[in-house]
């Protein structure tokens, strides 16, 4: 049966668009901007077909495509999505539109190349989320670094060179180990198909090494404590659009990696090392929460806040293993993973919006220092309203999307361990403290200086951006059910997968996860 | 009925949205019309619903509006549970809110003066204020009408959000934004416990639906949780939930936000202190009575916290000179009474006092606001005096409010407070004696601070400057009408409501009883058994020490701050000086604020700074990240020595290598 290659379209449409924008050059800046916007919108509209054409009743890969790419090494151009990756692709396509609009007037230096970089970035990121072949995944994964490297390095702030190199080496360092793991898995499975990797029986030592290799790659991307320090630097130096993409989507790729690779490929090692990830996540929530409190730079503050919020993602994912080992917990494993996923999507919107808000101020005053502001709401009431709103969403206010994921993860964590839940719940206090204290100093109070007194409120372009994100944050907060519905079957499948012991017969004694019973054994009375 | 309930909730929301987003276009009249219409509609429908419950035997409604999400077999829904408890709360909330809305027209009429020149925030502040108070009403209605813990938490936090916006309403004042932030954060500390309580419910009950949880509760009464060496599940859940209530209902030590909330405009003080927000905790515990009844430890905890707040916060009220702060501390103290009642399992009495208090406290605040308007926003009671003559309606209604507050026989506060004290006297729980003693002494304190304020404000010689005195006159009708409307229930509601609410078990409808009391905790039974009508209740109270204390306090206050103060105006200051260290302790509010500011807020900032400098910057960045970069650099520096670029170096190396290899090969 012929199936329209929708995922190919979603990957290559923005890349082709990017090349077209690049080719058109800076002769007519407005043409290239409109072309870029056109491609971004077109990609987003096409991505909606994923949503409507998606069958939430199955955990199978959908919209699958498979073409031989490098037959000698069994490498395929294999694409497909399930309920885990599909919402992330739509998020990517959605956010890119606002990035293009946000750079509309601000970027005067080589605007066409700026737009092109983001479009290519979009295609590559969609590629990461939809690749089902490990080599293809790796290619997209590394390719992602190039546009981001350029975006920060060319349009970034004064210290951009340090930041880009730190960013590049950090992330590259992690991914090299992942490559080794992927090649090892190829020799074991005889193919590069990720789904084949999932089915592979692996001993504990192999699993542990693979898990650590993946961990190095994904922990840097998320980023998790203690490999997080590249993020604040990258954010501070990145242009607004770069920060938005970084926070809204690139961080999610780390979380996605855990779900697609680490957990299903090495479930027993994941279970054995879950304590480590949980500890790192809780440190992210508490320690980073305090660090955020000490920031004087708005972008750094939001960057640290992102790390803390991503702590909930990894916590939600790995709490699964603690729940299945706690006999009194009952259910809750699925809720943890779903909570983590919702948190990823929600954080995409909220952190993106917060970086846009800081961008709005930066474009006018050219400072990110909290101390340079004060009483902004007096001259920018609409902006103030949006900023406070997104700050509240960042503090996890019910009714906004920021609440949903945290709520679910806390409920799930409680089933595993009271004290972990207690630590996780400190976010209620910490997130409110660092976010709203910033708001108090920036937005409220008397007008601080002449620059603030001269501020102009949002223009139509900015208003459009922030209103659209605000609407999504509200909608997801008031009615998250549809989002959970599309991911539910896939997550349940994943949880069954990761809670089933994969150790070979001779190591079966080491299984802490449930073992698949042979059918014959079940049939006997 | 579902549509009626939806309308009640959504009408204020619609008003808030219209006034908030289109305030500039519809203007002031448009904004207050639309919000008052919304809240007015809610009020009418709520009263109608209440009426149906009283006279028409309306069945309990428990239904979902929509499914918020389903995960892991758990359904999270948005839905309503409307029984008699809810209906009473709805009527109280919407009625008080409506009065506050109307009053606001007068109070905020010249709000433009409160903003600096040219601030765009001041342009539509009037409309924005109406939008916020309507949103407040919506949030509170969501809270009281919830049929599950998730929605309860939604309303709980939404109330916190709006209080943040309203307390910090005058956003150019640092003290206001500070108070708003403080209120939000202190509430968040409470919510932290609350959320964990909800998580415990979700884990052990497998549902967040009230009806299902309450039905399952007796079966889980014996469950132990492996924490602190084994603790009863019910105790854990109830204490955690109560920590949330301590935040919202401002119980020690989470009370610190409430006096500061006076930074907001007076109408919201009335709203926060009377009907919305602070009553949330009381309502929540009453709603959860089927759980609290199963844990005597939790009840004792509630009892002790409540009694401590009731007495010690009342004492602080004695030394306050800001008219609003006196009333604020009285709120703290009265909330303590309600909480103590809950701890004594007299939930009905707690809720009864919540209702009477809502009316007379809203009245007192609005009256205080009326005075504040008249004296041009000077809130110091030492610079008032003699206002009685100039503002007869405000004076009379404030007198009614004060009498109701101290529990003067026949007034609404008398019935509710006496019922609480009677119930607490009966409790056999740990801490019962302590609570009974403090509540009884608290009556004296209440009478003292209430009438100290009353006499200083309304009687004696005018102490304000001449300019202010010449302009003193009664406030406009939009201000005085709500005062009168609130004064009526402040006098009568107790007389009419005590019999159904406390004696005849009105709350139960059919087999659904929102307030459950275990027979061994039934502290209201004594009152019920000896009930011979309201008249007898009043007569019986005449001989009790409680009333002696109240009247004694009133007489003492009249003597000191009226009779003696007429001749010796400095008597107030002298009395305070007489207190010595005690006065200073009270003026420092027992040091809670200093402690929090220095150790909690300062400590958190210091910790953050340390983590950042020592951890992130020094250890991770300088040590690990740049450190490894440096060591790569050093290694490269060593290796670089091999790559000099001089041909003769390479030639030498080649020769040495060749000779070396040949030697090896030859010797082998």
TrEMBL record, chain A:
<protein>
    <recommendedName>
        <fullName>NADH-quinone oxidoreductase subunit M</fullName>
    </recommendedName>
</protein>
<keyword id="KW-0520">NAD</keyword>
<comment type="similarity">
    <text>Belongs to the complex I subunit 4 family.</text>
</comment>
<feature type="transmembrane region" description="Helical">
    <location>
        <begin position="36"/>
        <end position="54"/>
    </location>
</feature>
<feature type="transmembrane region" description="Helical">
    <location>
        <begin position="344"/>
        <end position="362"/>
    </location>
</feature>
<feature type="domain" description="NADH:quinone oxidoreductase/Mrp antiporter transmembrane">
    <location>
        <begin position="132"/>
        <end position="427"/>
    </location>
</feature>
<dbReference type="InterPro" id="IPR001750">
    <property type="entry name" value="ND/Mrp_TM"/>
</dbReference>
<keyword id="KW-1278">Translocase</keyword>
<feature type="domain" description="NADH:ubiquinone oxidoreductase chain 4 N-terminal">
    <location>
        <begin position="74"/>
        <end position="122"/>
    </location>
</feature>
<feature type="transmembrane region" description="Helical">
    <location>
        <begin position="271"/>
        <end position="294"/>
    </location>
</feature>
<dbReference type="Pfam" id="PF00361">
    <property type="entry name" value="Proton_antipo_M"/>
</dbReference>
<feature type="transmembrane region" description="Helical">
    <location>
        <begin position="199"/>
        <end position="220"/>
    </location>
</feature>
<dbReference type="InterPro" id="IPR003918">
    <property type="entry name" value="NADH_UbQ_OxRdtase"/>
</dbReference>
<feature type="transmembrane region" description="Helical">
    <location>
        <begin position="6"/>
        <end position="24"/>
    </location>
</feature>
<feature type="transmembrane region" description="Helical">
    <location>
        <begin position="301"/>
        <end position="324"/>
    </location>
</feature>
<dbReference type="InterPro" id="IPR000260">
    <property type="entry name" value="NADH4_N"/>
</dbReference>
<keyword id="KW-0472">Membrane</keyword>
<feature type="transmembrane region" description="Helical">
    <location>
        <begin position="167"/>
        <end position="187"/>
    </location>
</feature>
<dbReference type="InterPro" id="IPR010227">
    <property type="entry name" value="NADH_Q_OxRdtase_chainM/4"/>
</dbReference>
<feature type="transmembrane region" description="Helical">
    <location>
        <begin position="241"/>
        <end position="259"/>
    </location>
</feature>
<dbReference type="GO" id="GO:0016491">
    <property type="term" value="F:oxidoreductase activity"/>
</dbReference>
<feature type="transmembrane region" description="Helical">
    <location>
        <begin position="114"/>
        <end position="132"/>
    </location>
</feature>
From TrEMBL, chain B:
<feature type="transmembrane region" description="Helical">
    <location>
        <begin position="326"/>
        <end position="348"/>
    </location>
</feature>
<dbReference type="InterPro" id="IPR018393">
    <property type="entry name" value="NADHpl_OxRdtase_5_subgr"/>
</dbReference>
<keyword id="KW-1133">Transmembrane helix</keyword>
<feature type="transmembrane region" description="Helical">
    <location>
        <begin position="268"/>
        <end position="286"/>
    </location>
</feature>
<feature type="domain" description="NADH:quinone oxidoreductase/Mrp antiporter transmembrane">
    <location>
        <begin position="146"/>
        <end position="429"/>
    </location>
</feature>
<feature type="transmembrane region" description="Helical">
    <location>
        <begin position="478"/>
        <end position="498"/>
    </location>
</feature>
<keyword id="KW-0812">Transmembrane</keyword>
<protein>
    <submittedName>
        <fullName>NADH-quinone oxidoreductase subunit L</fullName>
    </submittedName>
</protein>
<feature type="domain" description="NADH-Ubiquinone oxidoreductase (complex I) chain 5 N-terminal">
    <location>
        <begin position="68"/>
        <end position="113"/>
    </location>
</feature>
<feature type="transmembrane region" description="Helical">
    <location>
        <begin position="435"/>
        <end position="457"/>
    </location>
</feature>
<dbReference type="InterPro" id="IPR003945">
    <property type="entry name" value="NU5C-like"/>
</dbReference>
<dbReference type="Pfam" id="PF00662">
    <property type="entry name" value="Proton_antipo_N"/>
</dbReference>
<feature type="transmembrane region" description="Helical">
    <location>
        <begin position="184"/>
        <end position="205"/>
    </location>
</feature>
<dbReference type="Pfam" id="PF00361">
    <property type="entry name" value="Proton_antipo_M"/>
</dbReference>
<feature type="transmembrane region" description="Helical">
    <location>
        <begin position="152"/>
        <end position="172"/>
    </location>
</feature>
<feature type="transmembrane region" description="Helical">
    <location>
        <begin position="225"/>
        <end position="247"/>
    </location>
</feature>
<feature type="transmembrane region" description="Helical">
    <location>
        <begin position="354"/>
        <end position="375"/>
    </location>
</feature>
<feature type="transmembrane region" description="Helical">
    <location>
        <begin position="129"/>
        <end position="146"/>
    </location>
</feature>
<feature type="transmembrane region" description="Helical">
    <location>
        <begin position="36"/>
        <end position="55"/>
    </location>
</feature>
<feature type="transmembrane region" description="Helical">
    <location>
        <begin position="85"/>
        <end position="108"/>
    </location>
</feature>
<feature type="transmembrane region" description="Helical">
    <location>
        <begin position="298"/>
        <end position="319"/>
    </location>
</feature>
<dbReference type="InterPro" id="IPR001750">
    <property type="entry name" value="ND/Mrp_TM"/>
</dbReference>
């Amino acid at each position: 049966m012929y199936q329209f290659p929708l995922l190919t379209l979603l990957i290559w449409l923005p890349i082709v668009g990017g090349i077209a924008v690049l080719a058109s050059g800076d002769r007519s800046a407005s043409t290239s901007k409109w072309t870029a916007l056109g491609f971004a919108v077109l990609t987003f509209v096409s991505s909606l077909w994923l949503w409507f054409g998606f069958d939430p009743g199955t955990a199978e890969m959908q919209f699958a495509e498979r073409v031989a790419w490098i037959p000698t090494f069994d490498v395929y151009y294999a694409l497909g999505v399930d309920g885990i990756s599909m919402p992330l692709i739509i998020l990517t396509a959605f956010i890119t539109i606002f990035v293009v609009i946000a750079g509309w007037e601000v970027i005067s230096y080589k605007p066409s190349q700026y737009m092109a970089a983001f479009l290519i970035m979009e295609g590559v990121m969609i590629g990461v989320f939809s690749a089902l072949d490990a080599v293809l995944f790796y290619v997209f994964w590394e390719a992602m670094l190039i546009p981001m490297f350029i975006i920060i390095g060319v349009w970034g702030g004064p210290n951009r060179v340090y930041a880009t190199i730190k960013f590049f080496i950090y992330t590259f360092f992690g991914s090299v180990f992942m490559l080794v793991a992927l090649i090892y898995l190829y020799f074991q499975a005889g193919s590069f198909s990720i789904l084949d990797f999932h089915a592979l029986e692996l001993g504990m030592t192999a699993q542990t090494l693979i898990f650590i290799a993946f961990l190095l790659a994904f922990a840097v991307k998320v980023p998790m404590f203690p490999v997080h320090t590249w993020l604040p630097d990258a954010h501070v130096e990145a242009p607004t659009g770069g920060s938005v993409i970084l926070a809204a989507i690139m961080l999610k790729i780390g979380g996605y990696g855990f779900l697609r690779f680490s957990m299903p490929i090495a479930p027993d090692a994941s279970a054995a090392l879950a304590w480590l990830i949980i500890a790192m996540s809780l440190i992210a929530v508490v320690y980073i929460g305090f660090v955020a409190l000490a920031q004087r730079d708005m972008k750094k503050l939001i960057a640290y806040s992102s790390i803390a919020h991503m702590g909930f993602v990894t916590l939600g994912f790995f709490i699964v293993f603690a729940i299945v080992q706690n006999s009194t917990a009952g259910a809750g494993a699925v809720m943890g993973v779903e909570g983590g996923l919702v948190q990823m999507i929600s954080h995409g919107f909220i952190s993106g919006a917060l970086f846009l808000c800081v961008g709005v101020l930066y474009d006018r005053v050219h400072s990110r220092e909290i101390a340079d502001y004060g009483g902004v709401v007096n001259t920018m009431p609409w902006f103030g309203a949006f900023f406070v709103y997104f700050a509240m969403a960042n503090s996890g206010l019910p009714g906004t999307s920021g609440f949903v994921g945290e709520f679910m993860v806390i409920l799930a964590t409680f089933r595993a361990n009271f004290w972990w839940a207690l630590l996780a719940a400190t976010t209620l206090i910490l997130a409110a403290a660092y976010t709203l204290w910033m708001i108090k100093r920036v937005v409220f109070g008397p007008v601080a200086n002449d620059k603030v007194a001269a501020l102009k409120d949002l223009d139509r372009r900015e208003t459009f951006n922030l209103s659209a994100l605000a609407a999504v944050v509200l909608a997801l907060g008031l009615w998250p059910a549809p989002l959970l519905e599309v991911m539910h079957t896939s997550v349940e499948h994943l949880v069954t997968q990761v809670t089933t012991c994969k150790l070979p017969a001779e190591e079966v004694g080491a299984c802490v996860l449930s073992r698949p019973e042979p059918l014959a054994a079940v049939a006997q009375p | 009925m579902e549509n009626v309930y939806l309308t009640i909730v959504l009408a204020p929301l619609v008003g808030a949205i219209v006034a908030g987003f289109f305030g500039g276009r519809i203007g002031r009249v448009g904004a207050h019309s639309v919000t008052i219409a919304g809240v007015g509609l809610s009020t009418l429908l709520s009263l109608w619903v209440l009426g149906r419950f009283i006279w028409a035997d309306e069945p309990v409604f428990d239904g979902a509006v929509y499914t918020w999400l389903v995960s892991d077999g758990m359904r999270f829904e948005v839905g309503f549970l409307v029984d008699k408890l809810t209906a009473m709360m709805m009527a109280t909330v919407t009625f008080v809110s409506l009065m506050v809305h109307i009053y606001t027209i007068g109070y905020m009429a010249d709000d433009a003066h409160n903003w600096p020149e040219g601030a765009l925030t001041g342009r539509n502040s009037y409309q924005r204020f109406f939008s916020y108070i309507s949103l407040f009403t919506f949030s509170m209605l969501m809270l009281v009408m919830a049929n599950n813990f998730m929605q309860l938490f939604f309303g709980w936090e939404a109330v916190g959000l709006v209080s943040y916006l309203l307390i910090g309403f005058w956003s150019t004042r640092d003290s206001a934004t500070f108070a708003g932030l403080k209120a939000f954060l202190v509430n968040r500390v409470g919510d932290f416990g609350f959320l964990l309580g909800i998580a415990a419910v979700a884990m052990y009950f497998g549902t967040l639906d009230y009806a299902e949880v309450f039905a399952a509760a007796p079966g889980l009464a014996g469950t132990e949780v492996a924490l602190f060496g084994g603790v009863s599940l019910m105790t854990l859940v109830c204490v955690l939930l109560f920590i949330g209530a301590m935040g919202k209902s401002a119980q020690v030590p989470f009370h610190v936000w409430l006096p500061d909330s006076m930074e907001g405009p007076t109408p919201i003080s009335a709203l926060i202190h009377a009907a919305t927000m602070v009553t949330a905790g009381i309502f929540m515990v009453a709603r959860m009575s089927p759980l609290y009844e199963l844990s005597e430890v939790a009840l004792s905890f509630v009892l002790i916290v409540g009694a401590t707040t009731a007495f010690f916060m009342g004492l602080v009220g004695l030394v306050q000179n800001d008219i609003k702060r006196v009333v604020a501390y009285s709120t703290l103290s009265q909330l303590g009474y309600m909480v103590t009642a809950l701890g004594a399992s007299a939930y009905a009495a707690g809720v009864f006092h919540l209702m009477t208090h809502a009316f007379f406290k809203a009245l007192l605040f609005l009256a205080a606001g009326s005075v504040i308007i008249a004296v041009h926003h000077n809130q110091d009671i030492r610079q008032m005096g003699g206002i009685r003559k100039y503002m007869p309606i405000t004076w009379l209604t404030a007198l009614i409010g004060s009498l109701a507050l101290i529990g003067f026989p026949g007034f609404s506060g008398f019935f509710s407070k006496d019922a609480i004290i009677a119930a607490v006297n009966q409790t056999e729980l740990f801490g019962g004696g302590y609570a009974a003693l403090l509540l009884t002494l608290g009556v004296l304190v209440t009478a003292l601070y209430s009438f100290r304020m009353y006499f200083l404000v309304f009687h004696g010689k005018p102490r304000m400057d001449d300019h202010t005195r010449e302009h003193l006159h009664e406030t406009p009708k939009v201000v005085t009408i709500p005062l009168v409307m609130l004064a009526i229930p402040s006098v009568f509601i107790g007389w009419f409501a005590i019999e159904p609410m406390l004696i005849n078990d009105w709350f139960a409808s059919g087999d659904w009883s929102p307030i459950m009391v275990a027979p061994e905790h039934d502290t209201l039974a004594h009152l019920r058994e000896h009930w011979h009508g309201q008249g007898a209740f009043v007569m019986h109270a005449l001989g009790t020490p409680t009333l002696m204390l109240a009247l004694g306090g009133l007489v003492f206050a009249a003597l000191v701050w009226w009779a003696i103060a007429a001749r010796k105006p400095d008597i107030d200051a002298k009395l305070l000086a007489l207190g010595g260290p005690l006065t200073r302790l009270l003026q420092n509010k027992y040091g809670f604020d200093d402690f929090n500011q220095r150790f909690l807020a300062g400590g958190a900032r210091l910790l953050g700074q340390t983590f950042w400098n020592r951890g992130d910057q020094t250890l991770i960045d300088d040590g690990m990240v740049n450190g490894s970069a440096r060591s790569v650099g050093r290694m490269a520096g060593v290796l670089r020595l091999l790559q000099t670029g001089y041909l003769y170096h390479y030639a030498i190396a080649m020769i040495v290598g060749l000779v070396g290899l040949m030697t090896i090969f030859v010797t082998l």
